Amino acid sequence: MDVTDRREPGRAALDGPLGGNAASIRATARALAKVESAVAAVLVEGISDQIALKTAAVGRGRDLDAERVVIVPMGGAHAIGRFLTRLGPLGTRLRLAGLCDLREEEIFRRGLDVTGVGSPRTRTDMEHLGFYVCVSDLEEELIRAVGPAGVEVLFDSQGDLRSFRSFQSQPAWRGREPEAQMWRFIRSSSRRSLRYTRLLVEAAAGRDALPRPLDALLATV
User: pLDDT band at 16, cuts 50/70/90?
Assistant: First the structure.
């Protein structure tokens, strides 16, 4: 049995459905159903970002549901304009914020501009609007925050350290930087990526070392 199936009920509820387009669609629909009664909506690319923010909030002692803060996984950065347009009419009472990876920064910036939310020209401008950028992506931010030794401890705790050692010995990855190896190993399956997103955020929060984009975004909402 996969370790993800042995989670306690609270963790399972936090993680939500694991992987697949259908899971993404369901997660988006559930989030949008809460928007009408929300005071803030955080637009993110996918489920892993949603898990990361919810887990980070718990680590900060916050209950986003009770605070009526909704995290909306959009199913990809290119949907930013559509979601900003959809939520725009609620803008007078709905605080908008967001999170994206470095490679999607320009997509988010154009979406904010085209929909009239703002006209950001720099990353600082985006942050003033409540939108933050991971460098270069969320997993890299988390691996840096926890550190290679800490990530290996997590791999060991989940029974994945032997698999990671085998991955490190593959010709394509042998001799590469540990952080790059860890990034690729975590990203090698959607289930693994979602599971380690939560675990890495918990570890970073426990060290009071949440990546700046997550920490700053939570402070914004």
Answer: very low
